[in-house]
Design a protein that fits this description.
- Helices cover 86% and strands 0% of the residues.
- It is an all-alpha fold and 297 residues long.
- The protein has one domain.
- Helix 2 (23-40) crosses helix 11 (232-260), helix 3 runs parallel beside helix 12 and helix 6 (112-132) packs antiparallel against helix 8.
- The radius of gyration is 19 Å and the shape is globular.
- The two termini are 24 Å apart.
- The mean pLDDT is 87.
- It comes from Halpernia humi.
- The chain crosses the membrane at residues 32-49, 112-133, 153-175, 187-212, 242-260, 269-290.
- It is found in: Cell membrane.
- Catalyzes the cleavage of beta-carotene at its central double bond (15,15') to yield two molecules of all-trans-retinal.
- Keywords: Cell membrane, Dioxygenase, Iron, Membrane, Metal-binding, Monooxygenase, Oxidoreductase, Transmembrane, Transmembrane helix.
């Protein structure tokens, strides 16, 4: 309850800040949040993987580390050689990841239709953001793929996901008593997201959702999984173990900035870099939730 109230209060606080900050300062604030909490929430993947796989031998851990880095490099190469496919895959993977993070713990079993709902929810969140910032989104996609998408590429998926979300929501209201209890609150959350995305700029709106509704809740789940409970001592321990991986990520983004700082291409490269570190992170979190569920059973 406290976590939920915090997210709502901080969201409206950020909306208020929007009226005071220029678009430039909104973007700067967004980058600061993403580079701190956003990157941090995915910087402990190797530690999580170590516990998930119960790896004790250094050779086995190095093997997993090599595989993790290979996935990152493969994603980077995919964005370079096949950007359209890479971007499409990134959206699909991120959609499921956002939905799973938001809804895990609110369903007793992850059936096929529940997983479908995870994807639909996350997909709707992404395209809700895209819908309110179509010009900026199409510009970024153009820089990544050299292809200018028509407006329909955003509006049609948005309305399809909206319809599917409503239909799946009605199904769960009718069949799931736990879902029925929180349905109105979740609709309110979606209205808050719509307000955020409508009023704020693209980067600032994305950062508000990504940090306060995804990254911080994810870190809380990770801390609880790694150390058994959430408290500030465990959180600082989490940050300490994540520090070097976080620093490497910041270094990579800094290199991108110095290469593209005088070009508008940096925004596109920034999203491509986020995609590269997101893909293996999603796989780790799926496995974390899976082993967490098994231990609870």
């Amino acid at each position: 309850m406290k976590n939920r109230n915090f997210k709502i209060v901080i969201s409206f606080f950020c909306i208020w800040l929007t009226t005071l900050l220029s678009k430039e300062f909104q973007n700067i604030s967004a980058f600061i949040l993403i580079l701190s909490f956003g990157i941090l929430h995915g910087a402990n993947d190797i530690v999580l993987l170590n516990k998930i796989k119960n790896v004790n031998k250094k050779s086995a851990l190095l093997k997993f580390l090599f595989g993790y880095i290979s996935v990152v490099l493969f994603t980077v190469m995919l964005f370079y050689f096949l950007p359209e496919i890479a971007l499409f895959a990134f959206i699909i993977i991120s959609a499921f990841h956002f939905g799973e993070q938001h809804w895990t713990g609110k369903f007793l079993k992850k059936t096929l239709i529940v997983k479908s709902f995870f994807f639909t929810y996350g997909f709707f969140i992404l395209f809700l953001l895209f819908y309110f910032h179509q010009i900026e989104v199409t510009d970024i996609i153009l820089k990544i793929t050299n292809f200018k998408i028509p407006e329909e590429f955003i509006t049609i998926p948005f309305f399809i996901s909206l319809v599917l979300l409503i239909l799946e929501g009605i199904y769960f209201v009718a069949t799931n008593s736990n879902f029925k209890k929180i349905a109105i609150l979740e609709v309110f959350h979606l209205l808050v997201f719509a307000l955020i995305f409508k009023i704020t700029g693209l980067m600032w709106g994305f950062a508000i959702y990504f940090i306060f509704w995804h990254s911080i809740p994810s870190m809380i789940d990770q801390v609880q999984y790694l150390y058994g409970s959430w408290d500030w001592n465990h959180f600082f321990k989490y940050c300490k173990s994540a520090f070097w991986f976080w620093l490497i990520s910041i270094f990579g983004i800094s290199v991108l900035y110095f290469i593209f700082k005088d070009e508008k291409l940096f925004d596109a490269m920034f999203f491509a870099f986020l995609a590269a570190i997101t893909v293996p992170h999603v796989w780790v979190i799926i496995n974390m939730f899976g082993t967490k569920k098994e231990s609870e059973n």
